[in-house]
Design brief:
The chain is mainly alpha-helical. The chain contains 17 helices and four strands. Strands 1-2 form a two-stranded antiparallel ribbon. Strands 3-4 form a two-stranded antiparallel sheet. The protein starts with a helix and ends with a strand.
Length: 386
């Protein structure tokens, strides 16, 4: 265990915190706080016929293809298919986006319940390495199509920028103000769509955007003085907005059946940039771990790392959330998707209300109603694509 102390700067101890359960406070003097990040932003737009995804080497004529994974079989279908529900593709996409939003909102509870403080760059590196590993069977397929590589690299750059700047921002920024600033993604996406002429925005879209921002402002208290963390959170919102907008473009270009290879490249890019950020932040500790792999093994096997939170964020939030978003954005505009995501703070606060015993004031409930109303407004009377 002495060797682990050399890598101690990678693990940042937090202050003693209070755990809430059913409105009762549990004393826990030595607990640590885990800064777990949530919002997943990525996506893929409308339809283009696509080839069936087959990971691994190409199949020679006359040879049978090997068994495919459940993920590959799911991606080989052309879009979403719920015939028993008799829904339009757009409605199916909106349902998927709302499910993604709920998964992202659940990370607020993961953060509170984890009660450990872990360096954001180390956490992000482990999270995205796991996420990229889950999609690794599709990498060979991606190497055969330059378009998929370009799409994945671009999506990965914007997404990594959003995740990492947000992680840095939340170290010093007030959490409520950070949540409010993250809602600026809702403004960035329609502004980009209007600037580049990819959509004709109706008045209801702008009314919904304004109502959503007002709702988030009412829902979240922001009494802390301004800090550099606020700047990084604002930058994160802008980067996530660009990512949603560009993901919509590439999704429509590539199609659902190419979602696996495209996301595999994107996740590798995110993981690589996260690792580079960690190495630049902790060069000496990283070099020590590379030179002493036994210490690295001990660290990875130890209970110090919040593995449940890391795996949940990597597999459920990142992999499944990003994939569902890619599929949904084939039939839903990025502007509508951005407004759907304004529900995330409200849903996260609702989860905290029931699971952590946190309570809102009257302004919080008014804000929650405004956010829900804005999402319904943009879904029913949203932007028209040119």
């Amino acid at each position: 265990m002495d060797d682990l102390n050399t890598a101690a700067p990678l693990i940042r101890p937090g202050k003693a915190t209070q755990r809430h359960q059913g409105g009762r406070i549990l004393e826990d003097g030595d607990d640590l706080i885990v800064p777990v990040r949530d919002p997943v932003n990525g996506g893929t737009p409308p339809g283009a016929k696509a080839m069936e995804i087959q990971a691994g080497p190409s199949i020679q004529p006359g040879l049978k293809a090997g068994p495919r994974t459940g993920l590959q079989r799911a991606l080989s279908r052309d879009g979403i298919s719920w015939p028993c529900l008799n829904m339009s593709p757009r409605l199916q996409g909106l349902i998927l986006l709302n499910l993604v939003m709920l998964v992202c909102a659940s990370t607020f509870v993961v953060l509170k319940e984890g009660q450990e403080n872990f360096d954001p760059f180390v956490f992000s590196s482990l999270r995205f390495v796991i996420a990229a590993a889950a999609f690794s069977p599709f990498l060979r397929r991606a190497t055969r199509d330059e378009r998929l590589i370009r799409a994945g690299l671009e999506i990965g750059v914007w997404a990594a920028g959003g995740y990492l700047t947000q992680s840095v921002g939340m170290v010093t920024a007030d959490a409520s103000r950070g949540a409010f600033l993250s809602a600026f993604t809702v403004v960035v996406v329609p502004v980009l769509a209007g600037i580049f002429g990819t959509a004709t925005l109706k008045r209801m879209t702008w009314i919904s955007v304004g109502a959503a921002l007002l709702g988030v402002m009412l829902l979240e208290d922001s009494g802390a003085p301004p800090s550099w963390g606020d700047f990084w959170n604002f930058a994160s919102a802008v980067l996530f907005g660009v990512q949603i907008y560009r993901t919509e473009y590439w999704s429509k270009q590539c199609g659902t059946k190419h979602a696996g290879p495209m996301m595999a490249v994107a996740l590798v890019m995110i993981a690589a940039l996260s690792i580079i950020s960690m190495l630049l932040t902790y060069p000496q500790q990283s070099l020590y771990l590379v030179q002493n792999p036994r210490v690295l093994d001990e660290l990875l096997d130890s209970t110090i790392l919040p593995w449940p939170a890391i795996i949940y964020m990597g597999v459920v939030v990142t992999d499944l959330g990003l994939l569902a978003e890619v599929i949904a954005l084939q039939h839903v505009s990025s502007t509508e998707a951005a407004v759907v995501y304004t529900l995330e703070p409200a849903a996260g606060a609702m989860a905290a209300y029931f699971w952590l015993g946190e309570r809102w004031g009257p302004n919080g409930w008014v804000g929650a109603v405004l956010i829900v109303a804005s999402c319904l407004g943009v879904q029913l009377y949203g932007a028209e694509k040119d």
